[in-house]
Design a protein that fits this description.
InterPro entries: AAA+_ATPase (IPR003593), NA-bd_OB-fold (IPR012340), P-loop_NTPase (IPR027417), RuvB-like (IPR027238), RuvB-like_C (IPR041048), RuvBL1/2_DNA/RNA_bd_dom (IPR042487), TIP49_P-loop (IPR010339). The chain is of the alpha/beta class. It has 15 helices and 18 strands.
């Protein structure tokens, strides 16, 4: 038998266009640093975005929206991504494209669901829970008239804290969660007594039956206090999550016994959600967390979508709507009206407008350098200068897109470092927008119409 060689599969390193962005790059006074958090240049736009973020955090931007306007490749989407990074994981951020709305079968329903996903509800509830490190866990089996073999009948778990310990018998549903989560000795868990929901909080290395030098579970300290106690549980859901939960409870079964899902959530369900949230908010058990709904290429929206946004923006549970476009004077879709950025003037009057400007040559150089580090491309000084020139004369996006082809060209000649000759070689192989237009003009008689 011939020998079979098995070689490990090389996994690609994915890096999105804005994966290097960590925030807006502002100091404690809200002033933009020249280079910080992956952001370069656009100081006025970043400082304006910083004020928007602060207003969102303080809940002072109700009934308003933001429009980011600028030429292509000036960092409009980057600023929106940076705003999301600044707001943190707890604040909802929904990004869609204007063409997605235009292609939707029901544009208003699509926008409504996106808006509801962009509004969070931070719920506080005092629950009775048992918490501690697992020191013993035994699964219980029982017989079933439907199966020839014993099935899971529950479990007996012993939990300890620094001050207390207790043994609890749990039902099969909770025991099944233990198995799904892979709960074992040394894990710190919390069980909601009322719902039976199990959460793993981490692992105490000293208590674990088997310990590892490297593990995906976070190491935590042994909890203190009583095992069984009442605690405040904080969860953040979106309005759409609550809508979907109520709709699922109301879903009807067909004659065949299958669950029939509704294609759209009804206004009645959303009204029930709003009433529930208002009640919880008045009782001090919940608070609204307005997030951001970002619509790129907003000029692709039509008058129906703009009318919906204008009205929805003034709603009590509206998120902060951030639009972005690179259009100047153009026709509003669905009308004969020519308006700035292809948007109705009454909507523009409701927006805070942030403008971006073309990058300087020094800023282009720094952006290319940061992207090269993110994509693990080693550039010589001459290669960086060549790419900077391409970015200034052709486009920044084109220059950034040449990084990986240039790296591959360097590897083919046996080098890990990209030189100016590699950049020149790939720039001749791949055309930029200007060259493509010239090509179309030159061969317009030979190309199909």
């Amino acid at each position: 038998m011939s020998e079979i060689q098995i070689t490990p599969v090389r996994q690609p390193k994915w890096s999105s266009v804005h994966s290097h962005i960590r925030g807006l790059g502002l100091d404690k006074n809200g002033k933009a640093l020249r280079v910080a958090d992956g952001m370069i240049g656009q100081t006025e736009a970043r400082e304006a975005a910083g004020l928007v973020v602060e207003m969102v955090k303080q809940g002072r931007l109700g009934g308003k929206g933001v429009l980011i306007v600028g030429p292509s490749g000036t960092g409009k989407t980057a600023i929106a991504v940076a705003m999301a990074r600044e707001l943190g994981e707890d604040t909802p951020f929904v990004a869609i494209n204007g063409s997605e709305v235009l292609a939707a079968e029901n544009k208003t329903e699509f926008l409504m669901q996106a808006m509801r996903r962009a509004v969070g509800v931070r719920m506080r509830d005092e629950r009775e829970v048992v918490t501690g490190v697992v020191t013993d866990l035994k699964y219980l089996k029982r017989t079933s008239p439907f199966y020839p073999y014993p099935v899971l009948g529950g479990a007996k778990v012993t939990l300890e804290t620094r001050d207390d310990s207790g043994t609890f018998t749990v039902g099969p549903e909770v025991a099944q969660q233990f198995q799904e989560l892979g709960i074992r000795k040394g894990d710190v868990i919390m069980i909601d007594v009322n719902t039976g929901e199990v959460r793993r909080l981490g692992r105490v290395k000293e208590k674990a039956a088997v310990s590892y030098d490297i593990d995906v579970t976070e190491n935590v300290e042994i909890p203190s206090g009583r095992v069984r106690s009442r605690r405040e549980i904080v969860r953040t859901l979106t309005l759409h999550d609550i809508d979907a939960s109520i709709a699922a409870q109301r879903a009807a079964f067909t004659i065949f016994g299958f669950l029939r899902e509704e294609s759209a959530i009804s206004d009645e369900v959303r009204s029930r959600t709003d009433e529930l949230v208002k009640k919880l908010r008045d009782e001090g058990k919940a608070e609204l967390v307005p997030g951001i709904m970002f619509i790129d290429d907003a000029h692709m929206l039509d008058i129906e979508a703009f009318s919906f946004l204008t009205k929805a923006m003034e709603g009590e549970f509206a998120p902060i709507i951030v639009l972005a476009t690179n259009r100047g004077m153009t026709t509003v879709r669905g009308t004969d009206e020519v308006s700035p950025h292809g948007m109705p003037r009454d909507l523009l009057d409701r927006l805070l407008i942030i403008t971006t400007k073309p990058y300087s040559e020094d800023e282009i150089r720094e952006i290319i350098r940061v992207r090269a580090e993110e994509e693990e491309v080693e550039l010589s000084d001459d290669a960086l200068s060549a790419l900077t020139k391409i970015g200034a004369e052709r486009s920044l996006r084109y220059a950034v897109q040449l990084l990986q082809p240039a790296k591959l060209a360097a590897e083919r000649r046996g080098s890990s470092r990209v030189e100016a000759s590699d950049v020149e070689q790939v720039s001749k192989l791949f055309a930029d927008l200007k060259t493509s237009i010239e090509y179309v003009e030159k061969y317009k008689d030979l190309l199909l119409h």
